[in-house]
C-alpha cells in the first residue's frame, strides 16, 4: 500500500508551527508496511486542497489528512473531501454528546459553530477523539482509502494509534514490517564511498541502501521490508556485513550516535584518560567530550594554546621548534601532544594546531591542520590534514578528525 500524508493549515505554510504530524505518521505507517512516497502541506483553501487531493489520488492508495476538522470557517477538510467523494456530512451523536458534555462541565454555552466538529462524512467509520472534540474518519471511495485526523498532536497521535492504525491494518492484504539501520562513516567522502560499494548499490532491491552526506560525514541508511521483523533485520545485517567488508575502516557507529560519543564510550571501556592541547580548535574538542555524561574520570584537562607564548610558557614547546618550523607544523603538534599528556598525567595526549582561516598563517593556506596523538610507550603519530570550507567548518571537522584518529588508534594499539 502506498500512502500520501496531507497536512492542512495555513499556519504550517507560514512557519508558525512545525509539521511534526507528518514525521509521526510516516514512522508509524512504515511499521505496518505502508510506503510513504509524498508529504504535502496545503493551506486553508478549498481549491488548493482539491488540487492536492486529486494529485494524491493519482499516486497513492491511502491518503492521510491531519488538520482542518475544527469549528471555524477555515477548517474545511471534511467538507471538501465529502464534496469530492460525492457524499455529505452528518452529525455523529456520540461526538455531539461529548462536545455538549464538555461545555456543560466547564459552565460555558456551546456556540453553534462548535457543533460543526461533530459532523462526519456519511458512511465513514468514526475515529473517537479521546483528547479533544472533533472525531476522525476512515472511509473508502473509488478504490482509495481516506483517513481524516485532527491537527493538534495530542489529539492526532492517540487517535491514530488507537483507532486509525487498526483500520488501516484491517485493509492491508499483507502486513510487512519496514526496518532500517543507519551506518555512520567519517574520513571518506560520499563519492569515494559510493564508488567503493557501487556494485552493491546497483543491485539493491530489498533491502535498499541510501547514501547521505552532511556535516563532514557520510551515512548509509539500509532499509528492509518483510513480514517478520527478525527477518528484516537479518537482511539488513547481511547488507551491512558486505558494506563494511569494503569500507569498514571508516565506520564508527549506528543511527543517532556521534563520533564524539563513540570516542567517549571507548575511553570508558578501556579505562583511559585524555588531555588536549588546542590551538585552532580553541577548546571545541574537549567541549564535545565534556558534554557527554560520565566523562569526568576520563578527561584530565586541556590547554587552549592560541598564542606562541602559551605554547612555550605553559606547554613547553621549544623556541627552536617554533622559530625553525612554526606553530603550524608537525613538529609543534608532536611536542604539544606529548607535553600536554605529561603535564596532565594522562594516558593519551592529543593536539590540534593549524590555520582555520580566513587568512593564511606562516605561509600556510586556511585548512592546513596538524593533529598529533601521544601515548606512553608508543611513538607519537602526527596526522597532517588539508581541508576546505568555512572557518567554522574547518574547526568542526578538525575535532571530528581527532575523534576519528583516536578511534583508529584504539582499534590498532590499545
UniProtKB/TrEMBL annotation:
Residues spanning the signal sequence: none
Residue stretches making up the MoaB/Mog domain: 4-170
Matching Gene3D superfamilies: 3.30.70.2860, CinA-like, MoaB/Mog-like domain
NCBIfam families in UniProt: cinA_nterm, molyb_syn, PncC_domain, PRK00549.1
Entry protein name: Putative competence-damage inducible protein
Source organism, top-level taxon: Bacteria
One Pfam family, short name: MoCF_biosynth
InterPro entries registered for this protein in UniProt: CinA, CinA-like_C, CinA_C, CinA_KH, Competence-induced_CinA, MoaB/Mog-like_dom_sf, MoaB/Mog_dom
Family recorded in the similarity comment: Belongs to the CinA family.
SUPFAM superfamilies per the UniProt record, alphabetical: CinA-like, Molybdenum cofactor biosynthesis proteins
Species name: Domibacillus aminovorans
